[in-house]
Write a structure and sequence with these properties.
binds nicotinamide-adenine-dinucleotide, alpha/beta, about 500 residues, 22 strands, six-stranded mixed sheet, 17 helices, single chain
Length: about 500
């Protein structure tokens, strides 16, 4: 536990949101929220007590009684206003995000914007939460479905997208008529809290959205609590697997979007300049701390000769604080993340991979205390090496070689993770084969980070996802609702009576 230092004791505290009020936690456990470029303590975040967690869930349970009956129009209008408020406050939100998370200001705006798209989607809930009707399924009998909200839902979010991922969750849960308890990442909860304040300003009633803070204890409490009906999780595979098992064992729905090792295949017929630009951006943007970062590139055949050009292009990326103009690569989230990534680079060298570009200990004038690692490239990487087997979650690209497309696809499908992937080629036939045979959730064709817009749902294969239904899009409407199928018949005076019917027919 990162106990508050005397400096931190003066730092502002992050509040809980319970029953419509932003309240100070009574806990004795606090953690510092630290600017990763400077080590300045920005705030202290509480680890909520068991009573506070219970109070948040109780307030959501009470609010559900009325919120579930609120009209579609009233729900939609809140999200129309909310998207407007987010747009109006974009610069402030991005600055807050960069201060506590480290990514560049334009990328922070992107983080907010990709969440804003889900808020816009929630505003069209009237079209999304429609049931189905079949007329005359038997004589005078109609069948239709109702998509009804579940009750109290919970969301647990990671540090790397502190705006987008909370916005994947509570807007769609609330728009479908549920109430919500959110547990943001304890590493960077401030931008999430500002988004929550704006949601309340947009008109979300007291108790419909609640926020608690904490770590393992809070997460376990949400998984176990009898009044929570569904849990949405985004984070590492280890924690997500635990959350999935614990929540489903307690009878809840769960959707867990987890870790990744995203491979790109480069065929020699690809547009070289576009492909190398895309690779450098997707491997090193956000300092590699994206679940969709391209961390492995599979160079097929003649494309293996492109390594020197990739290294030269990568050298042009600027490592600096996210606040500074022209920065491409900001700091890692914490000192612990920095030493983990540096340790993995050391292991890569020790285990025999060829270090093509060493980004360790870059000089960053004015930000000497920041958690910086510059872009790092290894070639000759193989399964069994830690830099291949682990999700590095830093600006480290592993290059592997393959003879042909079949071998490359087989290699990717043998990796336990299946979050995102991409192919770069000018061949439609190769791209189509890849799309058909690859076992990965998000597939990009000449597109390095194919995160779907909210008309579709985020997904994942194998170790990257547990649960059938993904965040946002159509799938999340099914996740956050219970289908009720109603079969009805009405009698009038002309209806003939056939007496008692003991068969199963209608
Ligand atoms: P994390 O798993 O450490 O933390 C996620 C959440 O779980 C946080 O709210 C944290 O407080 C909580 N938590 C941490 N340890 C816990 C424990 N022992 N028991 C219960 N709860 C615990 O993840 P992170 O480091 O914040 O985020 C990075 C990870 O998230 C990466 O693996 C990345 O690939 C993944 N991620 C996946 C997606 C996706 O959509 N697949 C998106 C973003 C991030």
């Amino acid at each position: 536990m990162n106990a508050p230092t005397p400096v931190a004791a003066l730092a502002p505290t992050v509040k809980l949101l319970i029953g419509g009020k932003f309240v100070e936690s009574k806990t004795t456990e606090w953690r510092n929220v630290v600017n990763p470029a400077t080590q300045e303590v920005l705030a202290r975040v509480p680890f909520a007590t068991a009573d506070e967690i219970d109070a948040a869930i109780a307030s959501a349970k009470e609010a559900f009684k009325t919120w579930k009956k609120t009209s579609i129009g009233a729900r939609a209008r809140i999200f129309l206003k909310y998207q407007h408020l987010i747009r109006e406050n974009m610069a402030e939100l991005a600055a807050l995000l960069t201060a506590e998370q480290g990514k560049t200001l334009p990328d922070a705006e992107g983080d907010v914007f990709r969440g804003l798209e889900v808020v816009e989607h929630a505003a069209s809930i009237g079209n999304l939460q429609l049931g189905e009707l079949a007329n005359n399924v038997a004589g005078g009998v109609d069948t239709y479905t109702l998509l009804q909200p579940l009750g109290v839902c919970a969301g647990i979010t990671p540090f790397n997208f502190p705006a987008m991922i909370p916005l994947w969750m509570f807007p769609m849960a609330i728009a479908t008529g549920n109430t919500f308890v959110l547990k943001p990442s304890e590493q960077d909860p401030m931008v999430t809290m500002r988004l929550v304040e704006l949601a309340m300003e947009a008109g979300i009633p007291a108790g419909v959205l609640n926020v608690i803070h904490g770590g393992e204890m809070a997460v376990n409490a949400l998984c176990d609590h009898k009044d929570i009906k569904a849990v949405s999780f985004v984070g590492s595979t280890k924690v997500g697997t635990h959350v999935y098992h614990r929540a489903t064992l307690a009878g809840k729905r769960a959707q867990c979007m987890m870790g990744a090792k995203n491979h790109a295949i480069i065929l020699p017929d690809a547009n070289k300049d576009q492909t190398l630009n895309a690779l450098a951006g997707a491997a090193f943007g956000a300092a590699g701390q994206r679940c969709m970062a391209l961390s492995v590139v599979v160079l097929v055949g003649e494309a293996q000769k492109w390594i020197p050009e990739l290294v030269e292009k990568t050298k042009t990326l600027k490592v600096n604080a996210g606040t500074e103009k022209g920065t491409d690569v900001g700091p890692l989230i914490s000192c612990a993340a920095l030493s983990r990534v540096e340790g993995l680079i050391e292991r890569g060298i020790a285990e025999g991979a060829k270090l093509e570009l060493d980004g360790r200990k870059p000089t960053v004038a004015g930000f000497e205390k920041g958690n910086f690692v510059g872009p790092t490239i290894f070639s000759g990487v193989k399964p069994g090496m830690a830099i291949y087997d682990q999700e590095v979650f830093g600006p480290v690209l592993a290059i592997v070689a393959a003879d042909d497309l079949d071998q490359a696809i087989e290699f990717i499908n043998a990796n336990p993770n299946g979050n995102g992937t991409a192919i770069f080629t000018q061949s439609g036939a190769a791209a189509r084969k890849f799309q058909e045979d690859i076992d990965v959730g998000q597939v990009g064709i000449n597109l390095p980070i194919p995160v779907p817009v909210p008309l579709f749902s985020f997904t994942g294969s194998r170790a990257s996802k547990l649960g059938d239904l993904g965040p946002y899009g159509k799938q999340v409407v099914m996740f956050y609702t219970q289908t009720k199928t109603v079969t009805q018949r009405w009698f009038d005076d002309s209806t003939t009576s056939h007496g008692v019917n003991t068969t199963i027919s209608l």
